[in-house]
Specification:
This protein is an alpha/beta fold. The protein has 19 helices and ten strands. Helix 17 links the parallel strand 8 and strand 9.
């Protein structure tokens, strides 16, 4: 089993002792352990190998200290791990063991933006035992990991495999290396890119791990002329949603199997909401159902909005009419063919609020949820993210803002890059013939 240890132990001798004791205990049990200090050098900025390890590990230990909660690095690691866990089948979740090595509480996790970590079984060090009990505490952590899990069959694993499969079709290894350089992969890892066995998977992790803006366009340009057209189109479609922040996208998966959910996205363009969903569900090609409605202003707002939503739900369910919805035994997700809270069980309804008064939109959304409690509603509010007080005033039940919020420049820049990516297959084919009609 491959185990990733997330920590922030610099200038914390006790955290370092626990980390080393956990590593030793796991290795003694035959596990392969990755600790970022082993391979990261001073000056490396969130380097390539880290994405690779986060994506391929079978389990993870998160050493939670006050320093770790203040570390942006640890936060990114934890969010990637939690996202992977959210996409696993419930019978085989990614095992994550949070371990408190300071006198902290679940509320401290929530305050640090890692509240979902508090839902897991936490190994805690008893008060006043910090100085001398590193080894004993490490044994508790190792025992919490248990046996090796089944192979990863999550949607995220399928996403990586899809991108790796496309990259394996590139006919020129030097172009793959050139693409890796554009993605800021350090020279010392380029031999992994050249390896025909592990190279496609390693490079796939770089493409999916972080948004690289124009660097992504240039990287795809390096391989476009050496990739079969169909595979190039598939590859570009799978990497386009990587501009969406992983932590924000994970908010779309935060609701239980029978619980209704509303997420608020401050996006200007409808395509942005679509890309958020693609990012959250790892571009899985089946089972992800999305429909869109637009709120309208007028005296008959409530009736018109309800009608649009019902028609959209009928489309999602694949039934011939609104009247046929009532014949579906779908009061909650537990009655669906697959009762698990996995992406294939998610139906998204994007609501474009437009200029309609937000309190009316909120009432409409609440009414929709009372009828269809298994929907995840994505409320697109435009460039401004509503405050918590505003959501309370609108009485928007159970709403969760997708944060970090977007900035107008961020959205515009990303969509411009994506437009350029869509143009690559035509350019790689030599472009349209001059003078063609």
């Amino acid at each position: 089993m491959k185990v990733f240890i997330s920590h922030s132990s610099r200038e914390d001798p006790f955290a370092g002792k626990v980390r080393e004791a956990v590593r030793k205990g796991l290795k003694n049990k035959g596990h392969e352990v990755f600790v970022d200090m082993d391979e990261l050098r001073p000056g490396d900025d969130w380097c390539a190998v880290l994405y690779h390890r986060l994506a391929e590990c079978h389990a993870a230990v998160v050493l939670v200290s006050a320093k770790a909660l203040a570390s942006g690095w640890v936060r990114r690691e934890v969010n990637i791990l939690l996202w992977r866990r959210a996409l696993c089948h419930p019978s085989n979740p990614l095992k994550i063991v949070p371990a408190f090595i300071d006198n902290l509480s679940e509320q401290d996790l929530t305050d640090a933006g890692l509240g979902d970590l508090a839902q897991l079984q936490i190994a805690k060090l008893k008060p006043r035992r910090r100085p001398a009990k590193a080894g004993k505490f490490a044994r508790v952590i190792v025992d919490e990991l248990g046996e090796a899990p089944e192979p990863d069959d999550s949607y995220m694993a399928a996403w990586v495999e899809t991108v790796a499969s496309c990259l394996s079709e590139v006919k020129n290894a030097d172009r793959l290396v050139a693409a890796a350089r554009e993605l800021r992969v350090e020279e010392r890892y380029l031999d992994q890119v050249r390896d025909p066995v592990i190279g496609p998977g390693f490079l796939a992790h770089q493409l999916l791990g972080r948004w690289q803006g124009m660097r992504l366009e240039r990287a795809m340009g390096q391989i476009a002329n050496f990739t079969p057209a169909e595979k190039l189109t598939q590859l570009l479609g799978n990497v386009a949603p990587t501009w969406v922040d992983a932590e924000a996208a994970r908010g779309l998966l935060a609701f239980g199997a029978t619980g209704k959910g509303t997420v608020v996205l401050n996006a200007t363009e409808e395509s942005t909401a679509q890309l958020y969903i693609s990012r959250a569900t790892c571009c899985f090609p089946t089972g992800i159902c999305v429909a869109t409605v637009a709120a309208v202003t007028g005296e008959a707002f409530a009736e018109e909005f309800a009608r649009q939503c019902a028609e959209a739900v009928a489309e999602l369910l694949g039934v011939p009419s609104v009247d046929a919805i009532e014949d579906q035994l779908l009061p909650d997700r537990t009655l669906r063919p697959d009762p698990y809270n996995t992406p294939q069980d998610l139906m998204f309804l994007i609501v474009n609020a437009g200029t309609t008064p937000r309190h009316l939109v909120a009432q409409g959304v609440n009414d929709v949820h009372s009828r269809f409690p298994w929907l995840v509603v994505v409320l697109r509010t435009g460039p401004e993210m509503p405050t918590g007080d505003e959501l309370t005033a609108w009485r928007l039940a159970g709403a969760r803002r997708l944060e970090p919020a977007l900035t107008p420049d961020e959205e515009t820049y990303a969509l411009r890059v994506i437009t350029k990516l869509k143009e690559l297959p035509v350019k790689a084919s030599g472009g349209p013939m001059l003078g063609a009609a």
